[in-house]
Design a protein that fits this description.
Length: about 120
């Protein structure tokens, strides 16, 4: 049974809501495999249908808000930002800091200090 684009979009949204974006080293190929799609179809869905410039931009749209929630949580104040970045699926702090600043306009530390 071939799924339609809206079904793929819903399946993708469901996977992401379940935390698929938290997987370190998540690639288009790995995610496409979980969806049962060829990678080029997932790229098309992410870029053309959902309007993201690339896969990384798509992942960051889930990862950064997740980290923001963690930073706002007083019970996680003791956790280093690096720990949160790694838990969010980033391989190291530099790409995380760049992505965070690009999306939020401030650094993760400045964001945490607001709370």
């Amino acid at each position: 049974v071939r799924q339609t684009l809206p079904e793929h979009t819903e399946h993708l949204a469901r996977l992401m809501a379940q935390g698929a974006f938290l997987e370190t080293d998540l690639t288009v190929i790995k995610l496409a495999r979980q969806l049962g799609l060829p990678a080029h179809q997932l790229r098309h869905l992410i870029n053309q249908q959902l309007g993201f410039s690339n896969f990384s931009d798509f992942l960051n749209s889930y990862r950064i808000p997740w980290v923001c929630e963690q930073l706002a949580d007083a019970s996680k104040r003791h956790l280093p930002i690096l720990t949160l970045a790694l838990e969010a699926g980033y391989g190291s702090i530099a790409p995380f800091n760049r992505a965070f600043k690009a999306k939020m306009g401030i650094t993760p530390t400045e964001h945490r200090d607001q709370f």
